[in-house]
Amino acid sequence: MHQSIWQETQLPHFRPLSGNISTNTVIVGGGLAGLLCAYLLRQKGVEDITLIDAGGICSGVTANTTAKITSQHGLIYAKLIEGLGENRAAQYLAANENAIRLYREIIAREGIECDFTPCSAWVYTTDERHLSKIEDELEAVRRLGFKAVFEDQSELPFPIKGAIGFPDQAHFHPLKFAAGICECLTRSGCKIHTQTKAAGTHGDIVHTDRGDIRAEHIVSCSHYPFIDKASLLFARIFQERAYVLALENAGRLKDMHIGCADGGFSFRPCGDMTLFGGYSHKTGHEDYTRHFDALQGDAAALFPRARIAHMWSAQDCMTHDGIPYIGRYESAGSEVYLAAGFNKWGMTSSMAAADILSDMIVKSGSAYQDAFCLRRGDAGLQAKSFLKEGVDIAGNFLSHLAMADKTLDSLERDEGGIVEIEGRHAGVYKDTRGGLHGVRPVCTHMGCPVRWNPDEKTWDCACHGSRFDIEGNVTGGPAVKALERAEVPEVSHAG
Question: 237 partner at 20 to 30 Å CA-CA among 95, 254, 326, 342?
Answer without folding.
Answer: 95
